[in-house]
Design brief:
The structure holds 2 protein chains of 2 kinds. By secondary structure, chain A is an all-alpha fold. In chain A, about 80% of the residues lie in helices and about 0% in strands. Chain A has helices at about 15-45, 50-80, 85-120, 130-150, 150-180, 185-220. By secondary structure, chain B is α/β, with parallel strands linked by helices. Helices cover about 35% and strands about 25% of the residues of chain B. Chain B contains 10 helices and 10 strands. Chain B has a 6-stranded mixed sheet with strand order 6-7-8-3-9-10, sandwiched between helices. In chain B, strands 2-1-4-5 form a 4-stranded antiparallel sheet, covered by helices on one side. In chain B, a hairpin with a 2-residue loop joins strand 1 and strand 2 (about 25-40). In chain B, helix 3 (about 110-120) runs parallel beside helix 6, helix 4 packs across helix 6 and helix 6 (about 160-175) packs parallel to helix 7 (about 190-205). Chain B starts with 12 loop residues before the first strand and ends in a 5-residue tail after the last helix. The chains are: A mainly alpha, B alpha/beta. The interface of A and B includes residues 9 and 11 of A.
Chain lengths: ~230, ~260
């Protein structure tokens, strides 16, 4: 349900069906993206190259869904001229797919780095990276659930968690730096791990975007760049 | 606000409506309505059939009095002057607040005479003055270029869209301050409709326009402000961009998204 009034059906059945199909496609895409991220993290921690290859292959389906959803949005916009909550749902969907597609790409990037790392012995036991991964996975999961349930409070909790992810990134970066300074032979693996941490940090940012989009969709209030625009505008 | 949503500093109410209620016999048709209609802007009235929007529109220039059994309570002020005040001449009110109807209704006269009609009734006799004001009104109604070489032809030979613009010119000739329009484009094809909508936009530079429309996209396109009426009640009145992206009332939401009506 997008909002209270969306529980009521359109007088026009065809329109109602189009919106329902759009929602289903978005949920499907969200689920596929979650699969890739979860798989890429497992591939990292278990050093599982086969799983990493699977993740890279699965991205094709996500790209196809992105195109299909964009097309559906265009059709509804052209033929139905949606307004109010329907319009907010449509514009949110258009942005949501971009974030989802980027998250999928970052999952692929993780898989690629995992394949490179698996060609070498482990640099060190992972401590912070699994914790950071879990935080990011939960954020993504919660952000998608908040969108489905049109739950503003849940979306806002996702947004609040982004600072944890940023803190993990800083911590991991600092630690990897010490390994690189210690021995130049560590640099190849350390930079791969640093990249993965950066990808995770970016996924956290995209999950934050999903949360902000959900708040806009439900309340019609733009909460992006809070405080940063207030000098000129409000 | 201008058409593109940028607020003008001098924004103020041209028409102030307070507690306006219209009855047909014993039955209340609409109200009580309170509304500030901003000068030199376009305000659209939308809502399902029978919601009272046309009745409300007609009460803004005392046209309802022509309907038997109609009774009006409340107050409407034009620049502070009460239009329902004691001893106020309805004809004088209608000269300041003109009206254009759904079906174009040109008189079976020449194009020029249609536009000059209100002037002659108002006592203007000077031929040069009339010719000048006819040209100005036709120009304002974006019709001058199309008819300047055949001003003495019958108005009935014009296309539907041209006839409607002629009626707008006729209303403009007496130089009103407010223009009320009751579904002015509902009988026109999309191109003629686009002409009328563009014209409404231009007219709001000088006039205060209030338009009733069944076409919500039309309200979204032409109006700076939109009012939603439902079951004789003014449900919501806001800037058009707000009303169509983030309506406050769930009835507005349901109506404009097509969930009833």
């Amino acid at each position: 349900m997008i909002s209270k009034s969306n529980s009521r059906e359109h007088t026009n059945r065809e329109y109602e069906l189009e919106l329902r199909r759009l929602r289903e496609q978005l949920l499907l895409m969200g689920a596929k993206v979650e699969d890739i991220i979860n798989g890429s993290i497992r591939a990292l921690i278990d050093r599982d190259s086969e799983l990493a290859e699977q993740g890279i292959a699965a991205d094709r389906k996500i790209n196809q869904l992105e195109i299909a959803i964009d097309e559906l949005c265009m059709q509804v916009l052209a033929r139905r001229q949606p307004v109010a909550s329907d319009l907010r749902f449509l514009t949110t969907a258009l942005k949501l797919v971009t974030d989802l597609e980027r998250i999928g790409d970052l999952g692929v990037n993780i898989c690629e780095r995992v394949l490179e790392l698996n060609g070498e012995p482990p640099l060190k036991p992972y401590v912070d990276l699994p914790n950071m991964s879990r935080e990011v996975q939960e954020m993504l999961h919660e952000a998608l659930d908040a969108f489905v349930a049109a739950d503003v409070e849940r979306a806002q909790r996702v947004i609040a968690r982004d600072k944890n992810v940023d803190a993990y990134y800083t911590q991991i970066f600092r630690e990897l730096l010490t390994y690189m300074m210690e021995d130049p032979r560590n640099i190849f693996r350390a930079t791969r791990l640093q990249s993965i941490a950066k990808y995770l940090e970016r996924i956290g940012d995209h999950a934050t975007n999903l949360g902000e989009l959900t708040v806009f969709m439900v309340k019609g209030k733009d909460i992006r760049h809070a405080g940063k625009l207030s000098d000129g505008a409000a | 606000m201008t058409a593109n949503g940028v607020p003008k500093p001098e924004e103020q109410a041209k028409l102030v409506v307070r507690n306006l209620t219209v009855f047909y016999g014993e039955k209340k048709a609409v109200g009580p309505v309170a509304m500030d209609i901003v000068g030199q802007h376009v305000t659209a009235l939308i809502g399902p059939s029978g919601c009272g929007k046309s009745t409300f529109l007609r009460s803004l220039n005392r046209m309802n009095e022509l309907i038997p059994g109609c009774r009006i309570e409340g107050d409407v002020r034009l620049d502070g002057d009460p239009i329902y005040g004691q001893g106020i001449d309805p004809v004088a009110v209608r000269r300041r607040i003109g009206m254009v109807f759904q079906r174009s209704n040109p008189f079976p006269k020449s194009i020029a005479e249609n536009v000059a009609y209100g002037l002659r009734i108002g006592g203007v006799n000077d031929a040069r003055e009339i010719a000048m004001r006819v040209e100005r009104a036709l120009t304002q109604a974006a019709l001058w270029e199309e008819v300047k070489d055949r001003l003495n032809d019958s108005a009935l030979g014009l296309s539907g869209g041209q006839q409607q613009r002629l009626c707008i010119a006729r209303a403009l000739a007496v130089e009103p301050e407010v223009l009320l329009m009751d579904e002015p484009a509902s009988a026109l094809d999309p191109i003629a409709t686009a002409h009328i909508e563009e014209l409404i936009n231009e007219l709001s530079e000088h006039y205060t326009v209030v338009i009733v429309t069944h076409n919500m996209q039309q309200a979204a396109r032409v109006a700076d402000y939109t009012a939603f009426f439902y079951l004789g009640e003014l449900v919501e009145f806001d800037r058009t961009d707000v009303l169509f992206t983030k309506p406050n009332d769930s009835r507005t939401e349901d109506y404009i998204t097509g969930r009833f009506g």
